Amino acid sequence: MKKWYKQLHWQIIIGLVLGLIWGLIASVSGFTEFTIDYIQPVGTIFINLLKLIAVPLVLASLIVGVTNLNDVTQLSRMGGKTIGIYLVTTICAITIGLTVVNIIQPGDFLPAETQEQLMSSYEGNIEGSAESAQEVIDRSPMTFFVDIVPQNFFKAASDNGNMLQVVFVAILLGIGLIQIPSDKSKSLVNFFDSLNEVIIKIVDLVMKIAPYGVFALMAGVIVDLAGDDIGQALNLLGALGWYCVAVLVGLLLHLFIVYSSLFKMFSKMKLTDFFKAIRPAMLLGFSTSSSSATLPVTMERVEKNVGVDEEVASFVLPIGATINMDGTSLYQAVAAVFIAQALGLDLGLGQQLTIVITATLASIGSAGVPGAGIIMLVIVLQAIQVPVEGIALILGVDRILDMCRTAVNITGDAAVSVAVAHTEGLLGEMHLEDDE
Hints:
This protein has 436 residues and is mainly alpha-helical. Helix 1 (8-29) runs parallel beside helix 13 (271-288), helix 2 runs parallel beside helix 8 (163-179) and helix 13 (271-288) packs antiparallel against helix 14. It has helices spanning 8-29, 32-69, 72-104, 112-122, 127-137, 143-148, 153-157, 163-179, 182-207, 210-226, 230-239, 241-266, 271-288, 291-306, 310-323, 326-342, 349-365, 372-383, 395-423. The termini are close together.
């Protein structure tokens, strides 16, 4: 058995803690510019490496999974289950968020002078988000489905935000391969199978530098938040403390209530064992704030440690990374009500039901749009007639909360893959002697 400090998840945690300490030291000692110029780029390189292998991994593993399936009916059934469970967990997340924020009422704790200071500091950061949100609202209801089908595969594959298009092409290729004689398809299937194995090995190599990448990312987050004055960051966190508490409590409740219920309904897996199996992916999601960047690691952990069959993981997880945003949707609900409370606006039951509907639709409608979290929030605020400018109240702590909600998003994707795999009879045994 490995010594604890040689296990991957502990190395990542150590990297997180040391990055936090360095960021604080840099802010106090004036090493902010050094951190931004020489340490933060290491984290950027690490994220770029993960993003680099995301598209080829999804393409290769999904093609191999479809060709092994040999049953288009089973594939369509799996798709229906995936979308259905994603929608249910998203609605649960929003409902939990609304419940928590109405109980805590964090907006009542924000002094008027703090509101004015935050609004003046961050109001310039939301102009572009309002325009992008309007573009999403103006889309045709069928635009989402039209966007899934690319005009040019190579253009789609050049942008990780177009992951659904890559999934579509991979499924199409897989179906085409099972429609022709095996003697003609064998060489191409073997090629993608070999490519898949190579990429998995590359994931293992990239993960060797994960602790250093996480250290650099965390140091960069603290420096970005605090600048040269750590007191400013602490004052900001103090002013928005109850808002942060509401978001974090909601996320924890969703993790332990919704996902444990999901496992009781669809498998015999223990939630604690599930967390142990995917913790490196959760920690990376927290560090990178990117579901797409973490996707290769999530897929590897779900297949290798959780026991989900490759054809399920390669189908469910890329879709989840694009449209399933449990953590983000919960955050939308808390943020919308918090802003309304801070501005002295009372939201009735009808408006809060509007938040549930709008946030659910926005989580799908804004898929693949850069800065999707803020754009989704603009759409929700417009739907309940709360001034969009109120977003300035929360932008100061958004980066930290984004890390938390991304970790929940990734956990949700993995949990749904377990449920779908169990219903398809494609869930194997767990392997918890991990971090090899």
